[in-house]
Amino acid sequence: MNNFEFANPVKVVFGKGTIARLSALIPTGSKVLMVYGGGSIKKNGIYDQVTNALKGFEVTEFPGIEANPHYETCMKVVEIVKEKNIDFLLAVGGGSVIDATKFIAAAYYYEGEPWDILSKGGVIKKALPLGVVLTLSATGSEMNERSVISRVETREKLNFASPMVFPQFAVLDPEVTYSLPARQVANGVVDSFIHVVEQYLTYPVNAKVQDAFSEGLMKVIYEEGIKVLDHPHDYDIRANLMWAATNALNVWIGQGVPQDWSSHRMGYALTAQFGLDHAQTLAILLPGVMTYMFKEKQVKLARMGEVVFGIIEGTEEERARKTITACEDFFRRMGLKTRLSEFGIKESDLDALSAPVDKQGWHLGEHHNIDSKVTHDILMLRL
Predict the structure, then answer these.
(1) Distance (Å, whole) CA 158 – CA 150
(2) pLDDT of residue 379
(3) Are residues 224 and 252 in the same domain?
(4) Where would a tag sit more exposed on the chain, N or C end, judged by fewer CB atoms within 10 A?
(5) What pTM does this model have?
């Protein structure tokens, strides 16, 4: 196991009716900006729960955060924060709303061009405090220090991380996910599953605790994921998926182990250039990474297949290859497509999709050996 330092300051408030706890979680007298997305929270009752819980606070609202939050939109919100003298941000939504809120919190105090936080690794010295009411189990952003933002003007999608943007609290009520469209539920299942894979499917470093947690999370997400679309109002299924998604990326299982994240980074261009959902990009790319990097990942692939999918017959190589097939079958069972051609993406598009790897100076994967050429080859496998 590799050396590590670990701290996660996020207070989790989990269970039925927990949105009512908001007034006790936000500092008394705060001027609150409530940030949310397209308005679905007004249809499913979440908005009413939140606003009732915020009675007594001075609240400003900003609806309209995009599914892949835009830098341009975030900067509009920063101006509102300054105009209204906001001192606490409340994200009510899924990963996109939370990511946007984190960027707003960081951009508010940033000296210089805020895009540098993403494009140049600009150091964040101070950020506004924020809290979360989670409405979608997927990204784990409610309990980590990471954010991904898209810039429409340049068709870029980039990420940043800073301990300054850990939420102060995250309210997780599984019941609020009952009304989600099936597509969003399926995306969340696949997204959280692959978050675990990115931290697990590398090379062994004898980190038994992290591996055991990761294997348990993948098994839970797989088993509950294939049930949830048929049983959308089953509280136990929703609760297990919500908590698993949070633990999939709350920075715990990645401590002391090598990590990959190449599927995520390569997928940014698919979202920025073709508008694909984040989880959809991962469902396409992960089987390609598994196949191209097969020898490096064979040992863990075989173990993953045994624990998660019950693949026990054959040689280690045969079991590892069956695991790749099982993953792709799982994604398709959840209703996601797994080939670029299913979105009309052609071989002639691949140069533009692989170019950001060089532009950003990325060397992806646990061995840092995935450059733009390898990215192009992996994309070819997924046509």
Answers:
(1) 6
(2) 97
(3) yes
(4) N
(5) 0.94
Rounded-to-integer distance, Cα 92 and Cα 17, Å: 15
CATH code of the domain containing 143: 3.40.50.1970
Q: What is the pLDDT of residues 199-244, one digit of tens each?
A: 999 999 999 999 999 999 999 999 999 999 999 999 999 999 999 9
Backbone angles phi, psi at 144, to 5 degrees: -140, -175
Q: Report the Cα 24 to chain-centroid distance in Å.
A: 28
Q: How far apart are CA 269 and CA 246, in angstroms?
A: 25
Question: What CATH code is carried by the domain that includes residue 237?
Answer: 1.20.1090.10
Which residue segment(s) compose the domain that 325 sits in?
Answer: 182-381
Same domain? For 308 and 355 the reply is yes
Cα first-last separation, the chain = 37
The total number of structural domains in the chain stands at 2
How distant is the alpha carbon of residue 336 from its chain centre?
A: 17
Longest CA–CA separation in the chain, Å: 65
H or E segment at 369? none
- Euclidean distance between CA atoms 314 and 84, whole angstroms: 64
- Domain match, 314 and 207 both: yes
Q: Is 2 part of a structural domain of the chain?
A: no
Of 148, 176, 204, the domain-final residue: 176
Q: Could you tell me if 269 and 154 are in contact, meaning their C-beta atoms sit under 8 angstroms apart?
A: no
**Which position has the token pair 């990942």?**
297
> Which two three-digit tokens encode residue 89?
């941000």
Residues in a beta bridge with 12: 170
Residue 236 falls within a domain, yes or no? yes
| Domain boundary pick from 176, 201, 221 | 176
How many residues belong to the chain?
383
pLDDT digits 0-9 by tens, 90-124: 999 999 999 999 999 999 999 999 999 999 999 99
Q: Are residues 169 and 234 in the same domain?
A: no
As a whole number of angstroms, the distance between CA 28 and CA 22 comes to 11
